[in-house]
Request: fold
Amino acid sequence: MRKRYRQLLTMVLLASFLLALPFEALATEGTLGYQGGISIENRLKKDEYQYSEMIFVTGKPILMTGTLTIKKTVKNDVITATYTYKLTNSQQNASMNRVVMTTTTRETKTNGQITETTQLSRAPTETITIGGQSYRLVDSSFTRSVLTDPKAAINYQAGEFIAQKTYVIGNTVNNPDTVKVSLSGRLYAYDQFWSSTQTQKISVLVETELKSANPPVQWGGSAEMVISSATRHQLYYSENEPDQISFEGGYVQSKWTESTLDYTARFPEFDRSGRPTDVLVTYADSQSLITPPETHRLMVPDLKHLNGHWSQEPIAILYGLEVIPGTGSNYRTTALVTRREFVTMLVRALKDIPEDPNAKNATTTTTKKTNNKTPEVSPFVDVKTDDPNYEEIKKAYTKGIVQGDGYGRFNPNAYVTKAEAVKMIVSALGLENLAPYPTTVTPFTDNDQIPGYARNSAAVAHTLGIISPDDRGRFNAGARLTHEDTALLLYNLIVYMGDELIKDYRDRMAAF
Reply:
């Protein structure tokens, strides 16, 4: 069992085709580049990334590597961004310099979803030199549309983009040789604390016209790329080697960023004189970037009284992550959990979505502050603003995780039932719509005893692997949760958010 719990994998960060996210400009903001590349953050230099990109202008794939610097400003729902690329390939005697500036405008709809439109704000500059031959960008266009559906714990995104770029080959002014590169694709992403990732599927079409050749030559080719990026966290158990030490071994949180690029390209074979033939050559390869891991030791709780208990490891992990408050010395596995305790632990387990480290908010003129402060008003009549769990309860209410009983009460000291807990979890994930409308028949043998408000959530939580039926196939909607039940439930939630969700957005799409 310990081995299973050591497999807790999560991901935080990154991936986009110049994607500019809503609200604070979040962590998946565009680090995959303008033409479909992959990157990892340079932790020693702000706003700079190690970057790799495949180019196809010669009819053969060439890997360009170097740096990508991103500067962004956010003001009044408009993001202006500047992307500066400096790339080389020494084996091919190749270099690239590119500057791209974009403007993203976003609009919040009545249902809370956000639409975004990105366009070039200025003509990009780009020059590629390969073996002494230059390719200079003379015309380009780019547009992207993204829909973001923000939920309490996760922002979901889907979008599409189209780009065209025309290069002049060499220095000929009149009737020059040209290469036209057209890109189109779709992107799917989600952004949250425990894992964020984006996967793009990009189609590339290359059309070359060599007017200076005798006779003139035209040739073309295509490529398909799947690019993905994520930052991952892993928890693993570290045994202590000394016997005479004040604490037992504990968990270590390791974080790293990884990006992958897979491509398949089809271009004509060229003869010795450089002219295309009727033979098509297929190229396929993968590239990846990964950062060195960062490690962080978690607190070691005092759980000696739980040695050998089936829930010891998830409880220890949640204590280390400070989801469960305290030191663990007075932890009772069979004690019942109140609604205030459950909501507090749930909010701490979900955590906030990280912000984009590259974005800067533009300065605005502020009005003169006054000393008149409006008193804080609690959303519930039975939860005071000085309650020790007020901030977590208020956050859960603001994010739509809890609503109250219809009379303005939260009932903080009532024991939470399984139906209530599962409803809160699925509401936080925003995945209620995965169940058939308006209600579904769950796989549990006591389906008819599950209240209507929680039936869809029970079905979804089962599908996601967060809950399982008991030995008689029951859900037990009215059962009051114990601390050990809650620990396993929240642990399964973290595993889903960190390790399982990415399989749908990255692994399955990359293998399709």
About this structure: Helices lie at 2-5, 312-320, 339-350, 390-398, 418-429, 452-463, 483-511.
